[in-house]
Amino acid sequence: MALPKIAVPKYTLTIPSTQVEVEFRPYLVGEEKILMIAAESANETVMMKAVVDIIERCVTQDINPKKLKLYDIEYIFTQLKSKSAGESSEVIIKCDECEEPNTISLNVDNDVRVTNLVTKKSDFKIDITKDIGIALRHLTMEDALISDSEESQTNQVFSKIIQCIDYIYEGDTIYDVREEGTKEMYTFIEGLNSKQFKLLSDFIEKMPRVELNTKFKCTKCEKTNKVKLTGIDNFF
Ligand SMILES: [Zn+2]
What we know:
By secondary structure, the protein is an alpha+beta fold.
């Protein structure tokens, strides 16, 4: 005899970059196991792949998570987690005054927000000289999955900048950067002066991301600590 099927509730969320509302169900024990195994690996790429997998399973519509922005994925995951594992989760954070470890409870529904979500159209174009400019885009999950976390910090910044470049233009001529190849792109970036380069690194810095802000009063010295958590590994 077939065992009874357990009904699963449905919820909705709005994808930050597209403002499209989608329906999702909480993840279940079998899926939680996938996340736990990924967390044990402590490897960011493995964790991100597990998150993509869970989003594909739990969101009812076909949204192709790899094509979504990185901050969309972080946001969707926090919403899934809050409806699956409970709205609050506990983390241990050291007081910045006395270093006492404090156990604090994070409330995903109240404390999570996407920063810098509104990016002006003009922010996506940077003039390098009078004629030459760069058109930029926000990183997608696909970009994050192919980036190499073993690379040095500096090389990672370079790779990220190159991934963010949509195209380069000179007057009316448009250069497709996917056709140019990575070596050409490195040469182009290395040929910038530091002021021009800063415009690009500022773009990366100001990219929207999911932030969890909260505060707690230290149990030992009573100092009020402000906490800001970012990055998918912090939301696991
Ligand atoms: Zn303290």
